[in-house]
């Protein structure tokens, strides 16, 4: 091929369909970390030289060869993915290192069937490994035959404008000030990676003379970008401009958890030494006493070395897969429970587990003879060291997340049980606990946790606060030498761990705890009587549940009914749909668990982003604006009919109320009413359950009057109503702080809904998350809402709140809130009018 002044056209070394690197199913190649280039999914069994040059490297295992072309470009030709693991079996290298080869000369032959059956993928790569001097431009992205023109390479020039005009894969640059509190730590880095992965272009961050690929969370954390620092961003590829804009937006938007007032209660000043007391930093407030229990991390014995490389590689990859499955399960659970903080933390863990820097280092250690356990441990240690040397406390604390992954993967490798044996009520002491430890300990009912190390802004601290588990960190190594089993006092508010409390002190602490418990018990006891405002308006406080177990807890907590049973929980995470009998049984179990209270059962709300494996729905360009909720009746009418039949079989039907999600017009309601009528007649059922409509899109709120004419009740879903009114994704981590249902626009829609319903004598409830916010209780009552469906543990608190309000005053002041300009202004006014106790 012509070689004109460093430009060179490479011909296809293999025959087959062509792929861009971004589409290669291998994180390292796809990230561009190995260099720019192209891939072919080969159909032939011989790899040919794409140009003349010198063989500068031949892989020992015969699956790859590197040529230096005459223009100086170094070209790695890599056959298949992870083919190194075949240890040369099936490959015959036809050239030697140092040999001169001509264009089109055969370089290596391989047994196509054998290799195809045993490797991850046959997709083969042509990568320029000295890409700092050269750039690549694909000539075709269709299928090629050996010898056909494939890739144009040219030297990088300093004249960027000219380059860019010629370059089909444009590179664009931008700069931005980092808004994330504490800089670019794991969660924002994971979010940036996620944003970057939404585009074909490859993007990098540049800071302090260093660069990192946006595909690597570790790499980005390693830049040690501090809060408010200015970073440069580059994106290269066909959608570079869009990728750049998205990244700039993500970098300049603080995470919800960072913008909301969740700063940890701090008491950073260590106090003077006090006998029998360790001073630490409060990571989660509270007061607890209990026996001290010590937890230890995994200590690896020395590595004897000399392991079978392939075996160790396989073991590591199985362990990684195992842990990744576990984390995915945790994520499903946190998503189902809508615990955003937990979700963000474990999403970051998943991203770290897939991080090319960590995986590559571990693979190299294995190739050097380490056991998988030691290789993984060393790779984690190396990255922890990087984080700790950056001189940024927040990033140093993120080493804890890496150590979490070390423990989990080591446990998987060693086949160790994952459960700790800790008695409920214990105070757990450890060098350091990790997020997954904390989830487990909390589920086991421990009374508090304390650590020798750790920080108040770590992920463990965030989780501990979320779980209401008192937590002290940075107590020092003294903590670890303490006698297990002795009674201690964990006064997290005061930053103290009292190691030898006197009997008097224990009594005092127990008294204080008793007072707190009494307050909660008082609310709990009263929770079983109806909640009335001071001027005699009854407000039903019901519960949102997902199962009969939740329902039983709700009833025990004083729920006046179930305000929302999300039936989709019965349909997700399985391979086949529940049949009518299974559905009937599940709904009946909830009705039975609720005594004589009413139960509102919402028909299935899947579609959009909640996909069911057994229910293929069209792929959506805009899932949340697509076939979801009641619109499913359009495409899967039999599914809804089956659910209605199951509901009609429950008893007593006067306690079973049906709620329709995502309604936008009256006809949708009328259609379901007709179906209900037809099915009931067919089944010989005389009674009809009440039929309600969810108000969760602005159209429904604006049509509330017409809907109320045909519906038995309305229930406002403030989660979706916020999303659709504010045009902000309710799950967008960067916008979460602004998706606030107390926005005056939403309050106007709620007011309009209540006014529309009142015209037809219908009642209005709220089952979105706003109902569980005590700050919103007076506003909702003031606007006319008469049922609040909340999370079961909050029933007592919300009822207590109702009892301290005057409905007439609420109505007067709420009307004024409609004229405010932002959710923030509404929140401030609420604090003023109705301070929280
Ligand atoms: C809502 O949108 O407010 C609601 C209660 O429904 P979900 O959260 O299940 O979408
Ligand atoms: Mg909804």
From TrEMBL:
A GO CC term assigned to this protein in UniProt: cytoplasm
Enzyme Commission number(s) of this protein: 2.7.3.9
Domain PTS EIIA type-1: start-end pairs: 26-130
Main localisation: cytoplasm
Top-level taxon: Bacteria
Cofactors, names only: Mg(2+)
GO MF annotation terms: kinase activity; metal ion binding; phosphoenolpyruvate-protein phosphotransferase activity
Record domain HPr: where: 171-258
Family, per entry: Belongs to the PEP-utilizing enzyme family.
Name of this protein: phosphoenolpyruvate--protein phosphotransferase
Lineage, broadest ranks: Bacteria, Pseudomonadati, Pseudomonadota, Gammaproteobacteria, Pseudomonadales
The gene coding this protein: nagF
């Amino acid at each position: 091929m012509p070689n004109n002044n460093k430009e060179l056209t490479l011909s296809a070394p293999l025959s087959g369909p062509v792929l861009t690197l971004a589409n290669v199913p291998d994180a390292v190649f796809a990230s561009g970390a190995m260099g720019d280039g192209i891939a072919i999914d080969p159909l032939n069994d011989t790899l040919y030289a794409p140009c003349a040059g010198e063989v500068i490297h031949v892989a020992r295992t015969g699956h790859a060869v590197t040529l230096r072309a005459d223009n100086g470009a170094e070209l790695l030709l890599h056959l298949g993915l992870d083919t190194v693991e075949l240890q040369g079996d099936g490959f015959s290298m036809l050239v030697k290192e140092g040999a001169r080869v001509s264009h089109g000369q055969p370089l290596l032959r391989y047994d196509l069937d054998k290799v195809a059956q045993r490797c991850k993928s046959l997709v083969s790569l042509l990568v320029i490994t000295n890409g700092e001097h050269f750039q690549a431009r694909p000539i075709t992205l269709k299928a090629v035959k050996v010898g056909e023109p494939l890739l144009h390479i040219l030297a990088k020039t300093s004249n960027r404008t000219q380059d860019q005009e010629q370059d089909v894969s444009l590179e664009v640059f931008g700069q931005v000030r980092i808004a994330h509190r504490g800089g670019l730590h794991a969660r924002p880095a994971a979010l940036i990676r996620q944003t970057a992965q939404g585009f074909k272009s490859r993007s990098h961050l540049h800071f302090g003379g260093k660069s990192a690929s946006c595909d690597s969370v570790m790499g980005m954390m390693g830049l040690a970008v501090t809060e408010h620092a200015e970073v440069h961003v580059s994106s290269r590829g066909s959608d570079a401009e869009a990728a750049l804009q998205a990244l700039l937006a993500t970098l300049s938007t603080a995470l919800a958890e960072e913008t909301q007032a969740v700063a940890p209660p701090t008491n950073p000043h260590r106090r003077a030494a006090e006998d029998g007391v360790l001073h630490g930093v409060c990571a989660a407030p509270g007061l607890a006493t209990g026996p001290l229990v010590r937890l230890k991390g995994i200590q690896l014995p020395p590595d004897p070395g000399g392991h079978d490389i392939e075996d160790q590689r396989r073991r590591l990859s199985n362990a990684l897969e195992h842990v990744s499955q576990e984390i995915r399960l945790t994520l499903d659970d946190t998503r189902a429970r809508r615990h955003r903080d937990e979700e963000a933390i474990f999403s970051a863990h998943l991203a770290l587990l897939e991080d090319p820097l960590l995986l590559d280092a571990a693979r190299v250690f294995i190739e050097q003879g380490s056991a998988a356990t030691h290789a993984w441990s060393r790779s984690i240690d190396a990255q922890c060291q990087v984080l700790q040397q950056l001189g940024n406390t927040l990033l140093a604390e993120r080493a804890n997340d890496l150590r979490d992954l070390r423990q989990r993967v080591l446990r998987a490798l060693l086949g160790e049980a994952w459960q700790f044996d800790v008695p409920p009520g214990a105070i757990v002491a450890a060098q350091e606990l990790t997020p997954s430890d904390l989830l487990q300990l909390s589920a086991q009912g421990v009374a508090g946790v304390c650590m020798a190390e750790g920080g108040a802004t770590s992920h463990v601290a965030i989780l501990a606060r979320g779980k209401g588990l008192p937590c002290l960190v940075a107590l020092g190594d003294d903590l670890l030498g303490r006698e297990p089993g002795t009674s201690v006092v964990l006064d997290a508010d005061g930053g103290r761990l009292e190691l030898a409390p006197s009997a008097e002190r224990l009594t005092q602490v127990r008294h204080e705890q008793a007072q707190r418990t009494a307050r909660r018990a008082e609310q709990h006891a009263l929770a079983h009587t109806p909640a009335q405002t001071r001027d005699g308006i009854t407000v039903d406080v019901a519960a949102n549940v997902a199962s009969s177990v939740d329902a039983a807890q709700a009833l025990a907590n004083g729920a006046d009914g179930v305000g929302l049973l999300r039936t989709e929980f019965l349909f997700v995470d399985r391979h086949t749909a529940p049949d009518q009998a299974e559905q009937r049984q599940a709904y009946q179990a909830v009705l039975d668990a609720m005594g004589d209270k009413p139960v509102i059962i919402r028909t299935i709300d899947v579609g959009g982003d909640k996909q069911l494996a057994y229910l293929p729905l069209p792929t959506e360009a805009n899932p949340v604006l697509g076939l979801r909720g009641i619109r499913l009746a359009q495409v899967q009418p039999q599914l809804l009919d089956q659910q209605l039949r199951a509901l009609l079989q429950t008893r007593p039907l006067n306690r079973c109320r049906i709620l329709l999600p995502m309604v936008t017009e009256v006809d949708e309601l009328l259609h379901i009413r007709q179906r209900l009528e037809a099915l009931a007649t067919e089944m010989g059922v005389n009674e009809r359950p009440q039929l309600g409509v969810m108000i969760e899109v602005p159209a429904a709120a604006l049509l509330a009057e017409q809907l109320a004419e045909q519906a038995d009740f309305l229930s406002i879903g403030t989660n979706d109503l916020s999303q659709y009114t504010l045009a902000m994704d309710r799950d967008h981590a960067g916008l979460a702080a602004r998706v606030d249902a107390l926005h005056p626009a939403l309050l106007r829609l709620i007011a309009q809904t209540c006014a529309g319903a009142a015209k037809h004598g219908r009642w209005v409830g709220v089952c979105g998350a706003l109902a569980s916010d005590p700050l919103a209780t007076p506003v909702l009552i003031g606007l006319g809402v008469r049922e609040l469906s909340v999370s079961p543990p909050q029933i007592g608190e919300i009822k207590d709140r109702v009892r301290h309000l005057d409905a007439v005053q609420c109505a007067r002041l709420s009307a004024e809130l409609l004229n405010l300009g932002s959710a923030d202004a509404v929140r401030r006014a609420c604090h003023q009018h109705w301070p929280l106790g």
